[in-house]
Amino acid sequence: MDNATSLPLPLAGVLERHAGRRWLLAQALLLVLLAVLLLAVFENTGLDLALSQRLYDPALGDFPMHHHWLFERVLHHGMKYASYALVCIALVPCWLGWKGELDWLPRRNALLAALGMVLIPIGVSLLKSLTNRHCPWDVLEFGGYAPYLGLLVPGPTGIKAGACFPAGHAAAGFLWLVWGVALRPAGRTWSRLALGLGLALGAGLGVVRLFQGAHFLSHVLWSAWFAWALSLALAAVLGADLGLRPGRGGQERVA
After folding, report:
1. How far is residue 64's CA from residue 32's CA, in Å, rounded to a whole number?
2. CA distance readout (Å), 171 to 35, 103, 219
3. What residues contact 203, with CB distance under 8 A and at least 6 apart?
4. Dist. CA 129–CA 199, nearest whole Å
5. What does the alpha-carbon distance between residue 168 and residue 37 come to, in Å, rounded to a whole number?
6. What whole-number distance in Å separates Cα of residue 85 and Cα of residue 76?
7. Nearest to 83 by CA among 201, 191, 189, 193
8. What is the DSSP letter of 156?
9. What are the contacts of 115-119 at 24+ separation with CB within 8 A?
10. What is the pLDDT of residues 124-157, one digit of tens each?
11. Is 43 helix (H, G, I), strand (E, B) or coil?
12. Under 8 Å CB-to-CB from 209, ≥6 apart: which residues?
């Protein structure tokens, strides 16, 4: 039998830990490959500008959805605050898991989830203040004052610094990706569900800001990359339990 649940508990625990380490290494390799792909695409093509040009109205001299009430009040501010309110609610099971009251959320995983939900948006905000990259509405091609620059190009001097990379609004959705790591002990189904919801919410919030001219596509994709990278880094530092356990839908394999 290759199912850890049919093995003596000490041996099952060893197999789960080894499987968790292999998964973590595989995810780290995936992150490296994705970073290379993102750099290759956005540093060597005009994809960012081409997409934003389709959302820009030259006659209006602005992005039509820039100040639209639905995009600005509901999908921008409203959705961001709703996500942060849900974070406050999600801290409750984190606290219960930290106290050892939840079998599906071990103590270190509870701490991982709590820290990830807080540190992902904070980390993105810090990066925005350091990278000096401008929003589309600030770029010359869209009536602004700054040149469009790739991520690896030195920032311009003599003009107001940009603070738009990576995408902060999308990070309010991508912060939920940390649960895709923290919920691995709950089973593959719950882990993948959390991962899918985090990706969907972050992508949706990112698209809203694309239509408003607040971000380029690369800003959103790098925000997702950072959220997943920080989630994995925290899991490694905290020694989180990354082995799959039996879920409600049936038994889970170790790897």
Report:
1. 36
2. 17, 29, 10
3. 170, 173, 220, 224
4. 24
5. 22
6. 14
7. 201
8. P
9. 115/178, 115/234, 115/238, 116/175, 116/177, 116/178, 116/179, 116/181, 116/182, 116/230, 116/231, 116/234, 117/87, 117/90, 117/91, 117/175, 117/176, 117/178, 118/87, 119/230, 119/234
10. 999 999 999 999 999 999 999 999 999 988 888 8
11. coil
12. 76, 167, 169, 170, 215, 220
What are the backbone angles phi and psi of residue 68, rounded to the nearest 5°?
A: -65, 135
Query: Which phi and psi (to 5°) does residue 166 adopt?
Result: -80, -170
pTM reported for the whole predicted model: 0.89
Label residue 16 by pLDDT band (50, 70, 90).
low
Question: For tokens 């530092």, what's the residue?
Answer: 237
- The structure tokens listed for 62 are 């602005």
What tokens does 59 get?
């006659």
For residue 34, what are its two tokens?
């994705």
Q: How is residue 58 written in tokens?
A: 């030259």
- State the DSSP code for 215: -
Paired tokens of 215: 């971000």
